Amino acid sequence: MGTLPFVGTVMAKKKAKKIVQKARRGYWTSGAKLTHMEVREIRWLHDKGEHTYGQLAEQFEVSAQAIRNIILKFSWKDLPDE
Predict the structure, then answer these.
(1) Residue 67: CB atoms within 10 Å
(2) CB 3.0-4.6 Å disulfide test: which of 51, 55, 69, 80 passes with 74?
(3) Contact of 39 with 33, CB cutoff 8 Å
(4) pLDDT band with cut points at 50, 70 and 90 for residue 2
(5) First-to-final CA distance of the chain
(6) Does 20 fall in a domain?
(7) Among candidate residues 13, 4, 2, 66, the one with its CA nearest the CA of residue 39
(8) Residue 54: which domain range?
């Protein structure tokens, strides 16, 4: 993404950077391993009650902690429920 041009004051520069960082969530972050459709599928499969965190983690090739965070909406919390 590069650096932001100098805005005027240090505080203005920090505020501009914070706004840019806040806008990048979920699939749009550079480190995202899942798409929004996969996250919805994970939540749906878990809601059915037939899959554990570990099973979902293996299926989607992420950690069980990542699955837990998705289900509890610690991550991907901006993704609306269907």
Answers:
(1) 27
(2) 69
(3) no
(4) low
(5) 32
(6) no
(7) 66
(8) 34-82
Half-sphere exposure of 75 (CA within 13 A, CB side): 18
- Please tell me the distance from the alpha carbon of residue 22 to that of residue 9, in angstroms, as a whole number: 20
Mean pLDDT of 55-79: 93
Token digits for 59?
Answer: 């299926």
4 Cβ contact partners less than 8 Å away, ≥ 6 residues apart: 13, 16, 17, 20
Residue 82 lies in a domain: yes
User: Phi and psi (nearest 5°) for 23?
Assistant: -70, -25
Residue 66 included in any domain: yes
| Local confidence band at 81 (pLDDT 50, 70, 90 cut-offs) | confident
> Number of folded domains in the chain?
1
What confidence tier does 16 reach under pLDDT thresholds 50, 70, 90?
low
Position 71, amino acid: I
